[in-house]
Amino acid sequence: MKNWLAAITATAAFALTPGAHAQDTYPNRAITWIVPFAAGGPTDAMARNIANRVAQELKQTILIENVGGAGGTIGAAKAAKSTPDGYTFLVGHIGYMAAAPSLYQRLPYDPTKDFQAVFRFPDTPLVLLVGESSPYKSVSELIAFGKQHPGKLNFSNAGVGSTSHLVAAMFASQAGMEITPIAYKGAGPALNDLMGNQVDAMFDQTNTALPQTRGGKVRALGLTSATAMPQFPDVAPMGAQALPGFQVSTWYGLYAPRGTPDAVVQTMYRAWQKALADNDFTGKMVEQGIQLLPEGQYAPAAFQQFTADEGKRWAGVIKQAGITLQ
């Protein structure tokens, strides 16, 4: 009788802790990464590239589910409500994981309370661009004109609340000048009008701006990175030119719904560490204008803190610029 009761107790205890066995075999089926933008964009491309490499380490398929709309917040909300079993993750982005809480009056998720950071992707700095025939040859010249002629400089952007919009607002604030933002439906149209001299300047991601600068269609005045980048040999960081301390990047990373077992988070992070050790993989990203980070900044705890800090940082920028979304 005692042996029978002991067996029942042991079985019940095991049933109440399914993660103990599941974590030993994790992952044992396909994993989904939710990308809150349409297929083909920069976030989607970055996610697919990294997912393919991490999947090799996990020896399991990673599926990309594109859930677009409302600047990424619809997809983020879906991820937040998903089962925290280690099979659904969110590919996060500076916009809906840092800026959105201050842009939207009502947000159906909280970036830090509803998610657990898993790992950060390499950063994508931005570059300040002007048209090929622009009279401005340096960041200092552009700032000087902007201060003398408030509101006369038109900065195109990928849409209200986009990274290019927010970075331009931060730039104007730190430079002590007033600019006029011109919103487009995406970075492509915004860049086209810059090349057509319909606007004065634009902040664009280094990876998408690189082909245009090499083709001579636009001129790069300054990088938003802290250090120089070999892909832009004649372009200095803006912080070293005219705005000391000016540094910002478009950042991405992987998040799990809050409640996901820590063992799962660590398994995913270890797979990412192995991918980062592949010099061929990381070298190709660098060639595209993506910037690698110090090793410790990729880790879950560091990325969780970074997410919270970025939320506070952009809250100040958005408030000062008076940017709002419904």
From TrEMBL:
Domain of life: Bacteria
Family statement drawn from the similarity comment of this UniProt entry: Belongs to the UPF0065 (bug) family.
InterPro entries: BUG, Bug_dom1
Signal peptide, first to last residue: 1-22
Protein name: 3-carboxy-cis,cis-muconate cycloisomerase
Keywords: Signal
